[in-house]
Amino acid sequence: MSRTLVVVGNGMVGHRLVEAVRAADVAGDWHVVVLAEEARPAYDRVGLSSYVDSWDAGALVLPGADHATDERVELRLGDPASAVDTERKVVTTASGAEQPYDALVLATGSRPFVPPVPGHDLPGCFVYRTIDDLDAIHAAARRARDGHGRASGIVVGGGLLGLEAAKALRDMDLSPHVVEMAPRLMPLQIDDGGGALLARLVTELDVTVHTATSTAEIVRDGNRLVARLGNGTDLDADLVVFSAGIRPRDDLARSCGLEIAERGGVLVDEQCRTGTADVYAIGECAAVQGTTYGLVAPGYAMAEAVAAQLTSGHPATFPGADTSTKLKLLGVDVASFGDAHAETEGALEVVVNDAVAGTYKKLVVSDDGTTLLGGVLVGDTGEFNTLRTLVGRALPDDPAAILSPDGAAGGGVGVDALPDEAQVCSCNAVTKGAITSAVHEGGCESVSGLKACTGAGTGCGSCVPLLSKLLDSCGVEQSTAVCEHFPQSRSELFEIVAGTGIATFSELIARYGSGNGCAICKPAVASILASLGTEHILDGEHATLQDTNDRHLANMQRNGTYSVVPRVPGGEITPEKLIAIGEIAREFDLYTKITGGQRIDMFGATVDELPRIWRRLVDAGFESGHAYGKALRTVKSCVGWTWCRYGVQDSVGMAVELELRYRGLRSPHKLKAAVSGCARECAEAQSKDFGVIATERGWNLYVGGNGGALPRHADLLASDVDSETLVRLIDRFVMFYIRTADRLQRTARWLEEMDGGLEHLRSVIVDDSLGICAELEAAMHEHVANYVDEWNAVLSDPDKLARFTSFVNAPEAPDPTISFRTERAQKVPVLLGTPEVSRS
Amino acid sequence: MNAGTVQANDRSSWTRVCSVDAVPQAGGVAALLPGGVQAAVFRVPSGAVYALSNIDPFSGAAVLARGIVGDTNGVPFVASPLHKERFDLRTGECLDDASVRVSSFDVLLDDGVVFVREPWP
């Protein structure tokens, strides 16, 4: 019999509950009704600050949050619960609807705390909690920017959220001031020493910090506001954002008589049950045995516990929360874990404060100095994962040695010191023991194998370096060799070829490899030679190195025939050219299909027909589309402001420019790109290796997106850049990828596995931290200057043309195994028998 | 049924394919034999010439001549251009699936010219 679960609240935790119930409720016992206050499906509130990068609310929506395809879930947006009758088991919503329940879960979250400062409700005062809040702040910031010189904003509260808000204001071109009552920033997480360094580092980033002072009053001054601080300072500002903590939203629970914890929050037991039957509370509104949690991870754990009880009928408890925090605030790494404030009796602190390097590290240890209790890291949080798992355990070394960069093994704690129970991946609760047994018993030999086998590293990914170290310590050699012929990695081979100027495979393998090569190293080296050199890929001995499609500059299909794709830059094509493609396809009887990359694919050409087809295409003004190459494919575009009434830039023009710039460039894997003319993102740029989205002030550049089997949303690399900067950044990005990626590694996986991730990439190609940008740009200029159409070059070279024959001893004879039939008015291959298979 | 010696000899008579220089170094070419039979003729860096059936047994497509030629632990192979299964150039055995092999053809080099014939049945 179907039962009804009513979930009040559609935040991240409420959404996780629904997902967990639906995943476990195989039989479909539960009908789920979600009552949501906000008008949009659940979104990533933790990532709220990133909304400022794109102003695209869609990018924050959690996967599956609309439940569009799940008829067991009814999502009622914009109709919050207003009352609960726990006797009748009915929830009344704001619209007056009555919804009966068999089980009720309160996931109402929390509200921003606004201190009762006089003037706190003036126009221009905001809180920082929802997308709507940010939209309102954005509108005010825009008005302020239009008014006078540098606009400024005040953030009341210097905790984690306050610093997030300061970053958002800075990204909106406001000069931010942060006012914190405590003597330091992030008073809950870090100590005075860490706070002092953090204040110094964020001050360098254009944030003015006022600590140990309150906000006494906010008054209007013409169009602006003045905040009077307790220390006598008057701060002029265009807007004020209150970010002084949160309070559980327990008013609904209060009004229906549920018990409330002493310091607020719906009081629940360790199974998240309220005192009333079938009513649960989870997330920030819940006080588990009296304690509320303002982080998402404990909320998720509560959601999982309740989902397990609802679907299994067995008790499941909230396991308690690891309140360790590691985050990047305004570009500064900050972490705290365990007893960060040394509140344990007799606890000792060991501090290394390196003002020059800009790092502060503190370990809190037991009174005998042997057991790790907690710690604070500012400026460098590289040791966070290891140290966090050691909390409550014996330290493997003297605390000072662990903190010192000159300590054992360069400082830090080796993975060998971790006990088996230590949680390596906290997103998916994978212990060191589970990982080592996956290696020893499960035969995992790589990070990707461990990800697939244990799930470790598939959440936030911060433990990936640890996984690699664990593999090392298990004695697994993680070979980066290209294949049995070359002990080097692809990027090492790239540097060798670049450094030595070696121009042929045979010389490279003779000097740096062994044997005769294979189907792995030959195409890899061919790609490197093509990226670095200017010779045609079918010149001389290069020809036999090329992989299947490159070998005949066309895409081999299942019956040995080829498909042909001429370039259509940006997807823009004249009627004349469309007609030419149609005529050529008709003449050679080719199956035609529109591709996902906004061009036209013609199938069913035999190898000997390719030159004749291309003669016609070249004469009609077409050139190779490199659909066959590990190279730039297309730069897809929407129609942009030329036609579209929403467009804010010429997306087609930019797409054409980029496609013509990077056409023919060989890379470790194919490169796809797109340009959208506005935030509606019709070109799907965020699923591309590089994607460009127009803004009112320029372009946002996204990198590392992927469709395919492992989709990945691209990361924002730079925002509001002008066209020239955009092209320069893409030049650098693409060349850096070509130099350092593994063979057949798309930009998405390359970026995921990059040490330091997006921040590192940004530092290299935006801030030029390695000093290689001039080199990267020069390499791209070289490519652009030397581009020639590959097919045109073949047509004028008898030696190359001679390779496009069916049989060396009968060039005119057609391949007798190829035949076609008709399907939906076009020819398609007849599936081939396999007469030659002899299985013994 | 016994095909008989004379018939077998006819079927397996040598076909002149091309000059050895027309076979790319570490590459292959396709040749048409009597009866529509297709051979893939390969040359490896040592100078040796091999011939296999041109038909990829996994797909039925006549494509092996268009595969990449390489070696593994000294064994010369061609990798199918469709899904990269490797075949020992000397025997036709599939190195990635021991239960599969393609026909290996006889090769004769005469004064810089390559001749191929189907193997004895």
Structure in words:
Chain A: It comes from Haloechinothrix aidingensis. Chain A: Residues 5-290 form the FAD/NAD(P)-binding domain. Chain A: Siroheme binds at residue 682. Chain A: It is an enzyme of class 1 (oxidoreductase). Chain A: Residues 629-765 form the Nitrite/sulphite reductase 4Fe-4S domain. The complex is a heterodimer of chains A (840) and B (121). In chain A, helix 1 packs parallel to helix 7, helix 13 (490-500) packs across helix 15 and helix 20 packs across helix 23. Chain A folds into 5 domains: 3-111 and 248-312, 3-Layer(bba) Sandwich (FAD/NAD(P)-binding domain), CATH 3.50.50; 125-244, 3-Layer(bba) Sandwich (FAD/NAD(P)-binding domain); 490-546, no CATH class; 552-629 and 806-840, Alpha-Beta Plaits (2-Layer Sandwich); 630-787, Sulfite Reductase Hemoprotein, domain 1. The model of chain A is unreliable at 406-411 and 835-840 (pLDDT under 50). Chain A has a 5-stranded parallel sheet, covered by helices on one side. In chain A, strands 9-16-10-11-12 form a 5-stranded parallel sheet, with helices on one face. With 840 residues, chain A is α/β, with parallel strands linked by helices. Helices cover 29% and strands 21% of the residues of chain A. Chain B has 121 residues and is mainly beta. Chain B has a single domain (27-117), classed as Rieske Iron-sulfur Protein (3-layer Sandwich), CATH 2.102.10. Chain B is 6% helix and 40% strand. A 6-stranded antiparallel sheet of chain B has the order 1-9-8-4-3-2, with no helix packed on it. A 3-stranded antiparallel sheet of chain B has the order 5-6-7, with no helix packed on it. The longest helix of chain B has 7 residues, at 5-11. The model of chain B is unreliable at 1-11 (pLDDT under 50). The interface between A and B is large, with 44 and 49 residues.
